[in-house]
Amino acid sequence: MLLFLVFALLAGVILPVQAGVNAQLRVHLGSPLAAALVSFVVGTAGLLGLVAVLQVPVPVGPAWGRSPGWHWIGGLLGAAYVAIATVVAPRLGAATLVAAVVAGQMLTSIVLDQYGLIGYPPHPLTAARALGVVLVVGGVILIQR
Prior knowledge:
- The protein is an all-alpha fold and about 140 residues long.
- The chain has two domains: about 15-90; about 95-145, no CATH class.
- About 80% of the residues lie in helices and about 0% in strands.
- It contains six helices and no strands.
- The chain has helices at about 1-30, 30-55, 60-65, 75-90, 95-115, 125-145.
- α1 packs across α4 and α2 (about 30-55) crosses α4.
- It is globular, with a radius of gyration of 18 Å.
- About 10% of the residues are buried.
């Protein structure tokens, strides 16, 4: 469990750095969509290299058709995040951006957990969880000021 928390912390470290790097790339390329595209092309190349080095089998053909269509939107959601963060990061600053992203994640996660949506096991909303969300949203307000 501790290892997973460390990896989650690492993901949290990566998000504001990624947003800042992509915002700078946007300045040089002249477009947030171009910066997001370059980010995903470089990420795809990195993943292809990793898959090749680790010799991870990637099923093709009929295996792809067994997954429901909505499973395929993950990449679009990632692209939307990268494009949005590329635009708003320099305007909000790293702390406000990340606080707002975390608040959005918390609000969405509470709904996903409450109803056990998209594969998450149900975790009912408790007073403690609701208070945690209120505190996160309050943190956004405090950091933004």
